[in-house]
Amino acid sequence: MTATITAFASSPDRGRGLARDMRVRWAFEEVGQPYDVRLVSFKAMKETAHMRLHPFGQIPTLEDRGIQLFETGAIILHIAERHAGLLPDDAASRARAIAWMFCALNTIEPPIVEREQTRFTEGDKPWHAERVPLMDDRIRTRLRQLSAWLGDRDWLEDVFSAGDLMMVMVLRRAEGTGLIDEFPNLTAYVARAEARPAYQRAYDAQHAVFVAAGDKRR
Amino acid sequence: MTATITAFASSPDRGRGLARDMRVRWAFEEVGQPYDVRLVSFKAMKETAHMRLHPFGQIPTLEDRGIQLFETGAIILHIAERHAGLLPDDAASRARAIAWMFCALNTIEPPIVEREQTRFTEGDKPWHAERVPLMDDRIRTRLRQLSAWLGDRDWLEDVFSAGDLMMVMVLRRAEGTGLIDEFPNLTAYVARAEARPAYQRAYDAQHAVFVAAGDKRR
Questions:
Q1: Following DSSP, what letter does each residue of B71-104 receive, concatenated?
Q2: Within chain B, which residue ranges are assigned CATH 1.20.1050.10?
Q3: What is the pTM of this model?
């Protein structure tokens, strides 16, 4: 029984791997497990069948032998708990890897997504241009602390983990802001992760969906 | 060996139990485990000794028999995995409880904290008053979906879990906005949680710290 995830039928990121299914695809690739993908349109995401799987009408979801999940963090933890490759074995290191997952999602991602979102929701407001540097400074504060922690390490702790996977994907959400580039060790950290074969397989898989959707639109 | 957490020496919430140590105290009370508290001043939070425990200079942290953790979500998951009372036994229910933890922290909390924070960082800006209804609407969208999911259930799933604990604490962060009151089943849900003896013990413990700090200031 292969697990099934959902992804955008037509991703708003234009296949750049910024939608959250990329995180789950990457996790499956790191642990060497196959997965099926069901594509969902924006319309279907808000309809009853999908809202039963995801109360907030988003992707990804996971269906895996009687387990139904939403929230990328929970899905990746589920995969990491069942297959070797994303969580260290010893209790202390395992707990720290999970701490970095929560950190990525609750400490680093919110100001990054906030900045991204206001471009769409307030981009036409007279105050938007003046707020961008304020939002940038909030992100910068977090990145500075993250950069200080990382130092010259390859990964956030001794070995690559689900914490790095989540952190790298969250940092990628700031692409185009130039903020990550201010911290050379963070830029190198993201590049190091992107060079992993599992990342590349996941990237190619989500990109192929975007290309195929484009074919259909023609 | 009792676990030790950190908390504000002088909480900015004036003892209302909105600081994140309340979440961890409540978790310990639900599983019936004692814990020690080390109080940290705002100054000490940004100094090297604490930043080694918490790379972002915040509270709470956890030190538990060689395990050092930051991020409230990770700390509560650590407690819930080691002691009965916060995660159901069967795999599917356990995974869903964890999904609700992530949901509270990554889907519900960010717009609530954003609104709270801009009061301090942008409260004096000419655009702030006009932005409040925009921020309220974003929160309202999430609350409406959460309310629809909850329906007439007591808890988010069949039994109270760490997911409810986290969700209730996140909803409490919106106190004073009037937004929760728009959804009677969410108001009742928060009240139901606050009536739990474990919640009350945790609340009293953090409130006692605030009262004692006030005594010292006199």
A1: SHHHHHHHHHHHSTTSS-SSHHHHHHHHHHHHHI
A2: 91-196
A3: 0.97
What class, spelled out in words, does domain A91-196 have in CATH? mainly alpha
Q: How far is A216 from chain B (nearest CA, A)?
A: 32
Q: How many CA atoms lie within 13 A of B191 on its CB side?
A: 8
Q: Where in chain B is the domain with CATH 3.40.30.10?
A: 3-85+198-217
For residue A5, the surrounding DSSP H or E stretch is strand A3-8
Q: Chain A interface, mutation test: which of B76, B100, B106, most A Cβ atoms within 10 Å?
A: B106
Instruction: Express each pLDDT in A137-185 by its tens digit.
Output: 999 999 999 999 999 999 999 999 999 999 999 999 999 999 999 999 9
CA nearest to B143 within chain A: A56
Instruction: Give me the residue from A71, A73, A107 closest to B56, CB to CB.
Output: A107
The dotted CATH code for A3-85+198-217 is: 3.40.30.10
Are the CB atoms for A147 and A183 separated by under 8 Å? yes
Q: What sign for the dihedral angle of Cα A136, A141, A143, A147?
A: positive
> Which candidate from A74, A106, A113 shows the least CB-CB separation from B95?
A74
Interface predicted TM-score of the whole assembly (ipTM), two decimals: 0.97
